[in-house]
Amino acid sequence: MWRRCLLGGTALWLVATTPAAAFVAYVSNEKSNTVSVIDTEKWTVTATIKVGQRPRGIDFTRNGKFVLVAVGDDDKIEVIDTATQRVVDSLPSGPDPELFAQDAAGKILYVANENDNTITIIDLENRVRLGDIQVGVEPEGMALSPDGKILINTSETTNMAHFIDTATRQIVANVLVDARPRFAEFKRDSSELWVSSEIGGTVAIIDPAKRVITGKIEFSVPGLRREAIQPVGISITRDGKTGFVALGPANRVAVVDATTHKVTKYLLVGQRVWHMAFTPDEKYLLVTNGVSNDVSVIDVSAQKVIKTIQVGELPWGIAFAPP
Amino acid sequence: MIRWLVGIVGLSVVASHALAADPTDIHIGYLGQAGVKSKLSLVEQPADNDGIAGARLAVEDNNTTGKFLNQRFFLEEFRLKDGEDAAKAATALADRNAFIIADLPADALLKAADALRDRKTVLLNAGATDDRLREQDCRANVIHVAPTRSMLADALAQYLVWKQWKRWLLVVGSHEADKLYADALRRAATRFGAKIVQEKVFEDTGGARRTDSGVTLIQRQMPVFTQQAPAYDVLVAADESEVFASYLPYRTWDARPVAGSAGLVPTSWDAAHDQWGAIQIQNRFIKLNARRMTAKDMQAWTAARMIGEATSRSNSADPKAISDFLKGPDFSVAAFKGQRLTLRDWNLQLRQPILLADGRMVVSVSPQEGFLHQFSELDTLGVDRPETKCKLK
Known about the structure:
The structure holds 2 protein chains of 2 kinds.
Chain A: H1 2-17, E1 24-29, E2 34-39, E3 44-50, E4 55-60, E5 66-71, E6 76-81, E7 86-92, E8 97-102, E9 108-113, E10 118-123, E11 128-134, E12 139-144, E13 150-155, E14 160-165, E15 170-176, E16 181-186, E17 193-197, E18 202-207, E19 212-218, E20 234-236, E21 242-246, E22 252-257, E23 262-268, E24 273-278, E25 284-289, E26 294-299, E27 304-310, E28 315-320
Chain B: H1 2-19, E1 24-33, H2 52-69, E2 71-80, H3 86-96, E3 99-102, H4 106-115, E4 122-125, E5 142-144, H5 149-162, E6 167-173, H6 176-192, E7 195-202, H7 216-225, E8 234-238, E9 258-260, E10 265-267, H8 278-289, H9 295-314, H10 319-327, E11 343-344, E12 349-350, E13 354-357, E14 362-366
Parallel strand pairs in B: 1-2, 1-3, 3-4, 4-5, 6-7, 6-8, 8-9
Antiparallel strand pairs in B: 10-13, 11-12, 13-14
Helix pairs in contact in B: 2-9, 3-4, 5-6, 9-10
């Protein structure tokens, strides 16, 4: 009851202070070498920003002033100034950066370099490289534990989730998962770590304390062959009750009961769905559809796709500006 | 008291042994032939390390993973010279290696397999495309990583039929391998509804592949050779022996595309393939070997990765446990083809998408959309379970 009041209050406050709760999302378009800016008030693209080659991983700095985008074929991370919507600087990563994670304070960035079996650590304030961590073959997924003590990296050909102590920068555990792990996501209360395996076709549920797999989310869509179900992006609601998993060429997002780890619904989205992000109020979930060149908007409580927004070619990553 | 102490010391030795345990060492042999076959195109001339270069990269990849699991992988190469006995060489390799990646012609491969029959050694065929090795001549100790001729032919046929190029002019070389490929192409035409409007044989009359007179003669020969054919959509060439197919594109009497052994070629790998993360393995391969990656390199890479994958999944040092996992229902491997690759349990053939490449670009990847199968669409390529003649033993 108290909780509902609080939620209601927050929602009211949002409506009152930010007109119509307009949020801004940045979408990286892997093929067109651009970033599309989406306004959630009108659900349209308001700007298209030219960036380097093959933009994929994308996120805002904690203060919302900049957007970081990994441009893999240029071997760096570009910095977009959100005020001018232009690339103003770049960060030194290793070869072919793909996904990255930043600490809660927004001071340190950990970058997975697909081409080099390493993670590069970058000082965000001074924009310099602090060091590297050797991991498995083709590092990709990156996630920091909510307390910031453990960094998770998934390596696509080694098929592991590496647990890295952020203080010592040493690997402290390795959990073998199904083939081609691409993305890692913690529940906010640190009770679970989810790792998607694109080729294996599953999401592993890992106990972050024991560092063992405790369960697996399996998917099955009637009429679709097993091979077409390729889990990639994951988002879990703040309350830890519902998970969303993008299923790639299955053209669906699975809605998962995050307690029982069973799929409750498959939402038909665009073609080859990659990554996703909640609006800061968690009312909507936006997913990028690589092959159909659009972004689907999912109403989170109704669990329905309500809109499709055309973006650039092969949209890949998506991030919302902090409120 | 002293006995207790000894006991404790003993325990601590066991404990520290378990912690910094001896690594699991997996030894892989590579059995190939000395010398390389000459190709018509100079840019396609295989390197001396064609094949094994891929296995070397996979062993590096396996060792990167192995670091975290205390597993080490080693590769030992042996090349058969002309007239050398495959059985003897395989037996010698099997003394030190639990797994042998073989790039051998069909008969030599069978000799090696039969020589190792009573051992636990597993052979992984990364070279021979002969269907008979997976059919009447199949062996329980041979896993086939290379695709078959029928898989390659079916992959091509699905695309040509999708493209509505259903009338084929089939030109076949005069060597045994060419005829086998032509058999596979005829079978594919029947399966997928293409029609071979005419068949021609291109006789190999001998001669050098490279001459100072160059293309003058070829330019006169090829149009005449393809003249007076009935109406056709595409010329399909079966020329594994590299005698004529590469001379056909742009030289046919009628303006028609060429496919098969030249033009649009079905293959397990191409240096231009960059989908599904393939760019990463292409880059790793170039970095290690200072050249581009061929189909044979990829087949050997996949074979060595399959061993690595089965070792990490079974987490065992016992070759028997590893090979049981490899042949078991839970095995699959990721090889930059957009989906997991698994083994056909009836003949141990690796299911795999086939690329269609023109030498510069990957044009398409089969199976094509719409070719359905009740179990796996990959089984629309090649000889399927109901038709198999294989009885594994």
